[in-house]
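Re: [help] complex structure
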Amino acid sequence: MKITLSNITAYKKWLNKENKPLSLAAKDLAAHAAEINKDVRSFIAIDPDVITNRALSLEKQTKRGSLWGVPVALKDNICIKGGLTTCGSRILEGFRPPYNATVATKLQAAGALLMGRANMDEFAFGSSCETSCYGPTRNPRDLSRIPGGSSGGSCAAVAAAQVVAALGSDTGGSVRQPASLCGVVGLKPTYGRVSRFGLVAFASSLDQIGPVTTNVEDCARMLEVISGHDAKDSTSVDINVPEYTASLERDIKDVTIGIPKEYFTCGISKDVSRRVQEAIKALKGLGAKIVDVSLPHTKYAVSCYYIIAPAEASSNLARYEGVHYGRRSAHAEDLIEMYIASRNEGFGAEAKRRILLGTYALSSGYYDAYYLKAQKVRTKIADDFRAVFTACDCILTPTSPTTAFKIGERIDDPLKMYLSDIFTIPANLAGLPAISVPCGEDKSGLPVGLQFMAGPFKEEMLIRVAHAYERSR
Amino acid sequence: MNANNINNNPISTDVVKYVAELSRLSLDEKDTITFQHQLARILEYIAQLNEVDTDSTPPTTHVLPTMKDVFREDVPGGSLSQKEALDAAPDSVRGFFRVPRVI
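Output below.
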């Protein structure tokens, strides 16, 4: 059995050639994904019966959408009605949401075959996929290494060709950083571009759902399907969704790309720097104008983020108390004891750390010094971007300062782990769209990622530039 | 502490315990010390925000300046049934969430 999962077009050609009902092909797809999963562990579970049943209902669709039959993985924090959704956390053990996330409904309406839950850092708290209560996912390029996080399962599943595409969520780089480390394409849309209804909340002023694919064309296709206003998410913006695939064929001769010097200072590995410099040369060769720009508050982004994100997370996670859904401790005499025991048993160390940090930053006497200060610095960071986008159309940076590190290497050093996201966090703080595309490998053959950022709702610019670059390689 | 400046004194184990209590978590001695060390290091790093002059900078209240409060007509629509709303609960009885004794 040879299955082609290299991209949407190639997969569809394979499916056509197979000339059999999708429900039968689905059995092969499930078996194929399960086989690879023994090593990579990108999926928390693969249930062939559920997949076959979903394929059977897709067979009944009279109008075949742009993703008809395409196998897609969803991060374990995206709700599917009646299916398990646990955020990689013990506290949501056994939780079956009574509704669909809007993105899940949209994908199914477009014909996507949902293959199951991709592993993730617990509640998306992490950059390595190691904090999942199900254990770590491994990088398909080197099984001793992390796939990045928190959408490590989504990116590893695409990189390992278990699925053609996936959805992740990106709060501080959780789609782009693992995409970079696994050698695939990952996009974080503008805040408000994609509905978060049915996405389990981590930090509500930062979270966005984004696609993971093997190439930029598929990224555009996925984005077209999941974007758009949704009355169920009051932060989703009511503006037209462009035909993103139409930007693919445009050249970049009239595009100005800014290179912010703050992203090329210490902490970035030699190989990453070399690959990114080569990419800059390639883009120049394609006719783009390259200019130096400055984002002076970049160095404060991680500090700013690690106040705002944990503060919002501690508030969002207050709802897990063993009453309405999820896990309840059996070791409690009264209500308060039950809350405490359920949370103690249900949350892992990183979740507890962020709850403590966030509660501290919001607590009486510390609020002004931490939370308010961080929101002011956040304004400064966003102002930097606004100023720079008067001089250029997009910004180019590395996605991650290093390539994939070893499993276990940073797990005992939270601050070092947090600094893994230094280049991806600013786009979340400013609400901007950003994409990571592969740009070669380091000495050990591990993928390096290139990041483009653009102004609000300029995803077309990202797709155009990233596609032109991808094609030139 | 000065309310407008990030504290440069390291977080104490007592504060860690107090914050845990506010968060409805309870930590044993070993965890308290581990978290105290880790949080102290993180907060020490975060103190760099003091370098930024924000005296005339407003805090971010909306992620993008174009965003505003959203209103809709108050029209009743569909919702979850009582059974659906209770299905995921660890314990329920006669249409209610059941919890251990409160007092």
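Chain A touches chain B through 73 residues (CB under 8 Å).
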